[in-house]
Structures are given as structure tokens and as C-alpha cells.
Automatic annotation (TrEMBL):
Residues 313-361 form a coiled coil. It comes from the Eukaryota. InterPro entries: Probable_transposase_24. The keyword Coiled coil applies. This is Uncharacterized protein. Keywords: Coiled coil.
Length: 397
């Protein structure tokens, strides 16, 4: 695949693909203990770039969220991705692809809005859409950007700090007061509920962010991509979660840990591996030490694997077990049916052989009957010159 040129302000350009060839995309095991997969490998970056190009070509941009895009359009996007990449028709793989398209859709719409915001005072903005966007779609998108719904939603979603939100309440009220009747009441109720929930979510996110003590050196690469690049080329074995965590929190440039929390965690892990802990009977394995120090996996993601990979839910595990049991029963039934079919075929073959033998015997019956008839006639009416020896040596004829 030819690498795409540098992105323009509104999105990405079309990526050239070798004619007649489909690019292979690696994904983590979607059925194993790692749960849901994520794209990785040599073509992972091209996959993301191509996703943006396909979105610009096929996806309607006037929808506020990915989930509101019609199903038929999503099917079109899936087919377009399959034409460029070697993707199996699999529910889990399709879910991974759609999650990537969802992220790219949000990013692309954000870039398009930035382009609109910088050029909205230009009289020719309607006639000069960004590269890859048709004039018709660009006009629809501008109409949406200028709608009351988008203005209110953008005020709320962009105000990710509570003090920003309180400072823009007057702007929200001005927008609402410009509406009439039922729409005004609906938006007023919507704003009240949204502000209340937003304050709660904002406070919770702030508390969670304050708890984050460890940074990493992975940059924009996903942990999955990092593991792929650091794998053993001969065996294909990827680094363990513990070694991955360590390498992404140690600065090779400074030859030191990037923060005190990472250093302390590393020392605790090494101590558990070498000496054990209060609640352990001697040294523990690397994985056990990793879990004891950093905590077990969470429902939302796998420890040390970053964004994208999620552990299978209990409901998913239960469903997989049921499906595995059903598959095993179906396999046994198929084997029994196959054996029965083979047995019937053998019996049919034997019956066919016996039938051929009987047909051969039946075909000889007319000849036998004819011979018997001739013999009977011969006995009843012998030739004139033939003498027959009777009882007591008496000669007849």
C-alpha cells in the first residue's frame, strides 16, 4: 500500500491500494481470554487512514453520532472496507472495524467543524468544501453546524470544565430564548437534566483523573501495536503484560523511571517475585506479582493492555460456553449421522451386489425352462427309429 500524503485540515486523503490486492489486517484474538480484538500490525496505521478516506466518501456527515447513521450506510462502509482489506465476515471482527470507524467519524467531524469555524465568515464557504467532501454534503453539514440543536450540544460537550460551563450559561439561555413554544420548553428541560448529569460526570472524571499517578512512554501507539512491534520474530511471542508495563514506564533517554509511582510499583513487583509477601507462601510468579501490585483486570479493559482490548463479560463467557456445548453436541450428532450414512451405504452396496446376482440367475430361468420343455417333449414322443429299453429288458419301438 502506498502511504497517504499529509492530512489536510479537514481530514485525510484517499489512500492508494495495489490494484486487485487486499491488505491484510492483524487483530488480536477475538475469542480468547483477551476478549474483544483491536487492529494491529504493519498495516494498522494505513487501516486508520483508509477508514477516514472511506468515511469521507461514503458516510453522511450530518448525523450527530455514529449510532444514528442508517444501517444501510453502515453496510456500505463495511463493504468498502472489505474491498480494501482482507476482513472475515465475522461479528466480532465487524464490531472492531465499526469501533474504529466510530472513532474516525468523530475525529473527522471535529476536523470538518474546525474548518467551518475558521472559514465561516467567508462568503464562498458553501462553494468551497474541504477535499473529499462534495458540495451537497458540505452544505448539509453547514446547515447542521448552524442549527440550534448543534449550538446547544456543542456548548455543553465542549465545556469539559465546570467553570467553563457556568461561564457560558448566559449563552445557552440566549439560544433557548430565541426558540418558540414547545421547542423552548423541550430544550429547557433538556438543558436542566443535561447540566445536572454533566456536573456529576465531570466531578467523577476529575476524581478519577486525580487518582492517575502513572504516565507512560508509549505515545500515540496502542499497547497492542507496541506488543506486536516488540514480538519475537521467530516464535511470534509477544511480551508479557508485566514486561510491557515496565518498558512503557521507563525512559531509555533518562535511564530512569518516568515517575516515582512507577518505580515503587516495579520495586514491589520484584520483591514479590523474589521474596514473596505477607499473604503469600514464598515468591510468586510474574503475573501474580503484577496483579497484586497493580490490581486485577477491570470490566472495562485489560490491565496493561491500554484502550481497545476489553475482557469478555460474564454474560459473554456464559454464551460462549453454551455455544461450545451446543457445537460439541452437534459435532457428535454429525459424527453419528456420518457413521449411520456410511453403514447404510455399505448395506446398499451389499444389497446391490446380491440383486445383481439374483438378476443374473433370473436371466437364466427362460433358458432352463426351454431345456426342460424340450426334454419333456423328447421323452413323450421319441424319434421313430429310436428303441426304448423297458422293464425286464423288453425293447419297445
Amino acid at each position: 500500500m502506498t502511504k497517504a500524503p499529509k492530512l489536510d485540515p479537514a481530514g485525510c486523503r484517499e489512500v492508494l491500494v495495489n490494484p486487485g490486492a487486499r491488505v491484510i489486517i492483524d487483530m488480536d484474538d477475538t475469542t480468547g481470554k483477551k476478549g474483544r480484538g483491536i487492529t494491529k500490525g504493519e498495516n494498522a496505521a494505513e487501516f486508520k487512514t483508509e477508514a477516514s478516506a472511506i468515511l469521507k466518501q461514503h458516510a453522511p456527515m450530518q448525523y450527530a453520532r455514529w449510532k444514528k447513521i442508517p444501517t444501510d450506510r453502515k453496510k456500505m462502509l463495511w463493504l468498502a472496507m472489505k474491498q480494501k482489506f482482507n476482513l472475515q465476515e465475522n461479528v466480532e471482527i465487524k464490531k472492531v472495524v465499526f469501533e474504529q470507524l466510530n472513532r474516525q467519524y468523530r475525529s473527522l467531524r471535529h476536523k470538518l467543524h474546525d474548518h467551518y469555524a475558521k472559514n465561516k465568515d467567508d462568503e464562498k464557504i458553501f462553494e468551497q468544501p474541504p477535499d473529499g467532501i462534495t458540495v451537497e454534503n458540505w452544505q448539509v453539514l453547514i446547515d447542521y453546524f448552524e442549527s440550534d440543536e448543534f449550538k446547544i450540544l456543542s456548548i455543553l460537550t465542549c465545556s469539559y470544565k465546570l467553570r467553563w460551563l457556568s461561564g457560558r450559561l448566559s449563552e445557552i439561555l440566549v439560544t433557548i430564548n430565541g426558540l418558540n413554544g414547545h421547542r423552548k420548553d423541550c430544550y429547557g428541560q433538556f438543558i436542566n437534566v443535561t447540566i445536572k448529569s454533566y456536573v456529576e460526570v465531570s466531578d467523577r472524571n476529575k476524581r478519577n483523573r486525580d487518582k492517575l499517578k502513572m504516565a507512560h512512554t508509549c505515545g500515540t501507539r496502542s499497547i497492542t501495536q507496541y506488543c506486536y512491534e516488540e514480538r519475537d520474530l521467530e516464535t511470534g511471542q509477544e511480551p508479557t503484560p508485566t514486561s510491557t508495563w515496565m518498558k512503557n514506564r521507563f525512559s531509555n533517554k533518562k535511564k530512569d523511571w518516568i515517575d516515582d509511582a512507577s518505580r515503587e510499583a516495579y520495586e514491589d513487583i520484584m520483591k514479590l517475585q523474589n521474596e514473596g509477601g505477607v499473604d503469600t507462601e514464598g515468591p510468586v510468579s510474574e503475573d501474580e506479582a503484577f496483579i497484586k501490585v497493580l490490581g486485577p483486570e477491570k470490566p472495562s479493559r485489560l490491565r496493561g493492555c491500554g484502550d481497545g482490548l476489553k475482557p469478555p463479560s460474564k454474560r459473554g463467557e456464559s454464551i460462549n460456553q453454551e455455544l461450545a456445548k451446543e457445537n460439541e453436541e452437534l459435532r457428535k450428532q454429525a459424527d453419528a449421522d456420518r457413521e449411520c450414512t456410511q453403514s447404510l451405504m455399505r448395506e446398499n452396496k451389499e444389497l446391490a451386489s446380491r440383486l445383481d446376482s439374483l438378476e443374473s440367475q433370473f436371466s437364466q430361468i427362460p433358458t432352463i425352462l426351454q431345456n426342460l420343455t424340450q426334454m419333456t417333449q423328447f421323452v413323450q414322443t421319441p424319434p421313430n427309429n429310436m428303441k426304448i429299453l423297458g422293464v425286464g429288458g423288453k425293447v419297445y419301438g
